[in-house]
Amino acid sequence: MKWKKERKKTNILLGAVFIPVLALIVAANFASKDKEISETENRTLSQRPAFTLQGVANGTYMDQFESYASDQFIGRDAWRKVYTVFCRIGGSREEEGVFLEKNNQLMEDISVPDEETLDATITGLNRYAEDNEDVRVSMLLVPDAAQILQDELPLFARTADQSVLFGEVENELSDRIQWIDGISVMENHSEEKLYYKTDHHWTTQGAYDMFLDTASMFDIEDAASVSYDVYTVTDTFNGTLSGTSGFDTDISETIEVYIPQKDFPYVVTYVEEQTKSASLYSTEALDTRDQYAVFLNGNHSLIEIETAAENDRVLLLVKDSFANSMVSFFIPYYREIVIVDPRYYAGYLDDLTETYHVTDTLFLYSGNTFFTDTNLQGILGGGEL
Prior knowledge:
single chain; alpha/beta; 8-stranded mixed β-sheet; 3-stranded antiparallel β-sheet; 15 strands; 19% strand; globular
């Protein structure tokens, strides 16, 4: 029949086009040089796995190769944007665990912890507090945007309740650990811009609000007496959520730094890199994709800050990147601030506490990082209580 002949011709034509195009894409993928980092997503990309018979037998090689092929696919960023556009046309308001609100606010989904992992972390925290009885130990979990801005989530979007998750952590912590209610502070300032629209971090305004409202818990009674000048260091910031989700919101945001009007001298030492700086800020980072790295030049394993404060107080700050924009507010009140990021540090907190004669230890994390990162267990070390 004529229609069958026409369909056969069409199939042959499609095959004649599709097969060479597919072959060209495969060849281009093999010929292209692998990338180590995705600047758009601000993360390390999977590299070609080593072929081993054991890896093939247990399935790990294919899993690693699948991740590698996905990360290194030629034109990956462009394909992701095309895919996201079609999803938005189809009504989707969530990609890669990121919600797109009607005013172009991007928010990460709330992460739910693995119970076994969380129990191990809390056990380590309690042991640290009990073994270092002369140290004031505090815990501050910063709520993520989807918790504080939940009224702005897309229609029918559902997330876990971070207030419940935080409450479970608080109930399991030792009485030796001072709990700081980060959710109440952020809710009290919810009319301000506390989070970037394109990034998962809080703004410097959010960090400053948190410091002012919780300073008394660190025996800082005159926090409001320090006046700051606020400077916009960039107005072209487009954060990691825009990159990881593929939602192209075309938004450029500002990043602000708070500089005290009174001079509080200090020296920053990046221990592993063996470099020093007279500033907490890295202007070079403003010329990169990751402009949030203007604070403390990004994340480092161990940082020492020596100040001119006339006291013997030493703060050990155990943190994720949320803390980077809050560090400056502690400068006037501690003789030394030691900052450790468990994602990059291989030692133990007990050793740091003894070496630096720590008087105060603050664990400061965003909720999502605290519930998903397992590195904190490693640096807490020690055994069970």
